[in-house]
Amino acid sequence: MLAVLSPGQGSQKPGFLTPWLALRGVESRLRWWSVPAGVDLVRLGTEADADEIRDTARTQPLLVASALLAAEQLPLHDVDLVAGHSVGELAAAALAGVFSAETAITLAGVRGREMAAACSLESTGMAAVLGGDPDEVLAALATHGLHPANRNGGGQVVAAGTLDALDKLAAEPPAKARIIRLQVAGAFHTPYMAPAEEALAVVAAGITPSAPVRILLSDLDGTAVPHGRELVHRLVRQVTAPVRWDLCMRTLADLGVTGVLELPPAGTLAGLVKRELKATGAPEIVTLNTPADLPAARDLIARHSGPPGRRPTSRSRVVVAPAVGTFAPVEGLTEGAELSTGQVLGQITTRQGPVEVTAHDSGPLTEWLAHQDDPVAPGRPIARIGGQA
Questions:
Q1: How many CB atoms lie within 10 A of CB 195?
Q2: Kind and range of the H or E run holding 29
Q3: How far apart are CA 106 and CA 135, in angstroms?
Q4: Which of 24, 67, 314, 345 allows an S-S link to 6, with CB 3.0 to 4.6 Å?
Q5: Which positions ≥6 away from 383 have C-beta within 8 Å?
């Protein structure tokens, strides 16, 4: 199984898009996307310095555009799974077919501008907490009134809150932990971003999303999201909610992912995956940063994605599990039954309680892929609606 990952803010580097402009049509594409982005993507990706592309309002649409730009050079029809870190989840949603590339870039532009505006309302920031006992780290953050904005796995938690609270954390770090202040404009993924969430929700309400055509993991809890509208809701909620990349990586391991391709600017997520999954057998990883990396990326796709010739639309007709637990289908619901969108197919018993599994499309229940008391994990196929196997 192959996973394609889209990185988030902080992965950008000055001039990182320069090599891509040598490919035919790339500059025109970027100029077209600059309109919904509200920024000059060509200049930002080639000429702008580090300070300029660190600006949240510019960085977010630039990162989404760069991931989608590289993805257009790849045969992704048989890719099994996509995920993105923070703003990278917008690119992942577009690759999953939830909405168009233009919609993803529009949302990234709005998200970036509104988060930058929210940062100006109060002096806040972020710091990486490396190492230490996880429970002690979280307790220390709570003591200082800080939020765990990112839980990235591999012993890395990003704290966010007021600058004064971050200073106190640095002066009294948890045992065996290092504190590294991050050069960011404010406390992302915390309640301090509430105005940005509200503004993004207004714009997102105008989107008509589609169901994902491949497994799409959510940063909120690492689960697969089968419904387009639910995904949009989660993307909006993500502005103030912590990024649980640790849970996304746990799902990669649960699903037995064997190959990982990180889109540009690549390296950060690949490093996290390599460290987190080494105990269970790290997948083969390719980082795509320049056109020179395209042959290796295409080779990885050919060897780790689905069977050749599989139609991507068939994935959109598969209902997947949203959580880890034990599945139980609705009693009396048999293959051949006609389903309606939103109909309950069964439930998963989890440690937190039952989670309903619903149909994301209408049509005949062609095949049960999970049965009574089967263990399931996020992204595990539950049933097939219409279409062919």
A1: 15
A2: helix 26-37
A3: 38
A4: 67
A5: 318, 319, 345, 359, 365, 366, 367, 368, 369, 370
Q: Is the dihedral of CA 148, 83, 185, 107 positive or negative?
A: negative
User: Which pTM does this prediction carry?
Assistant: 0.80
- Of 85, 189, 227, 304, the active-site residue reads 189
pLDDT tens digit sequence for 245-288: 999 998 888 888 999 999 999 999 999 999 888 766 789 999 99
pLDDT at 154 over 60: yes
Task: Report pLDDT for 142.
Answer: 94
**Measured between alpha carbons, how far is 183 from 280 in angstroms, rounded to an integer?**
33
Q: Is 332 helix (H, G, I), strand (E, B) or coil?
A: coil
Query: What torsion, rounded to 10 degrees, do the Cα atoms 22, 24, 27, 32 define?
Result: -160
304 is catalytic: no
Asked whether the predicted pLDDT for residue 180 surpasses 80, the reply is: yes
Q: Between the CA of residue 72 and those of 10, 119, 333, what are the distances in Å?
A: 23, 33, 41
Q: Exposed, middle or buried: residue 130 (CB in 10 Å: 0-12, 13-18, 19+)?
A: middle
319 backbone dihedrals φ, ψ, rounded to 5° = -85, 130
> What is the CB neighbour count within 10 angstroms for residue 257?
22
Active site residue 86: yes
Cα separation of 293 and 215, whole Å?
Answer: 25
- State the catalytic residue, choosing from 86, 210, 218, 305: 86
Tokens at 332, concatenated: 């009396």
The CA distance from 101 to 332, in Å, is 41
At 216 the pLDDT is: 93
Grade residue 389 by pLDDT with cuts at 50, 70 and 90: very low
Predicted pLDDT of residue 386: 73
Is the separation of the CB atoms in 251 and 273 below 8 Å? no
